[in-house]
Design goal:
Blueprint lengths: L3 E5 L5 H11 L3 E5 L7 H9 L7 E3 L5 E2 L2 H11 L14 H22 L9 H25 L13 H9 L6 H7 L1 H11 L2 H10 L1
Parallel strand pairs: 1-2
Antiparallel strand pairs: 1-3, 3-4
Helix pairs in contact: 1-3, 1-6, 1-9, 4-5, 6-8, 7-8
């Protein structure tokens, strides 16, 4: 079976998809690039994904996927034994889908817009305001997610899912683990539980 190719960068959300591919046991290779730096790597990335974002996943048949939530669901369909998502008849399925979209549709944009506010042509005052507002919105959304998740040990309770892969990576980003310990202890606990899995721990180590 041909390999999947994951185009990735250290410190980015591509780590979640690398974890998912490994847990699923799907043959794959990871192509690391400095995705924001001009050069052959970025040129190829833009030819596959005009948004210029990682992760970008090239399927064995050449199909290109550019959205991590879609990748997670595809990998689950290709390797349901990995249990990245609850089965369709599982009562937890609705909660899984809702939280997955919150993570990628509500939380992720706070980084997209807040990490580099200068890209929008703002003056220094505008840059400062946008960064502060996106940081504040992110913390509010995380606290909302905290109110929705199960007590322990994982986001959905007893079983680890792809949501735990997101949490393991994203709790390392702003506002940082100390903030989560104070304001979102269930999320931090789920992240730490996921990191006890050798696959998750290995990918985090390679992406640090």
């Amino acid at each position: 079976m041909p390999d999947y190719e994951l185009i990735a960068s250290k410190g980015c959300g591509s780590a979640m998809i690398e974890m998912a591919l490994e847990l699923a046991g799907l043959p794959h290779r990871v192509t690391l690039i400095p995705y924001l730096e001009p050069g052959p790597g970025r040129e190829r990335l833009l030819s596959l994904n005009p948004l210029g974002q990682v992760p970008t996943l090239v399927l064995p048949d050449g199909t290109v996927m550019t959205e991590s939530a879609a990748m997670v669901l595809h990998i689950h369909d290709a390797a349901p034994h990995a249990r990245l998502a609850p089965r369709q008849d599982d009562p937890a399925r609705a909660a899984f889908l809702n939280l997955l979209v919150v993570l990628v549709g509500a939380l992720y944009p706070t980084f997209t817009f807040g990490d580099d506010p200068k890209q929008f042509g703002l003056d220094e005052s505008g840059v400062s305001v946008l960064r502060a507002q996106t940081d504040a919105r992110r913390m509010r959304i995380w606290q909302h997610v905290e109110s929705l998740i199960s007590p322990a040990p994982h986001v959905l309770g007893r079983s680890m899912s792809a949501l735990d892969l997101y949490v393991a990576v994203m709790t390392r980003w702003r506002p940082g683990r100390d903030w989560f310990a104070t304001h979102c202890p269930k999320l931090l606990s789920a992240a730490e539980a996921a990191e006890s899995n050798p696959v998750v721990a290995g990918v985090i180590a390679r992406n640090s």
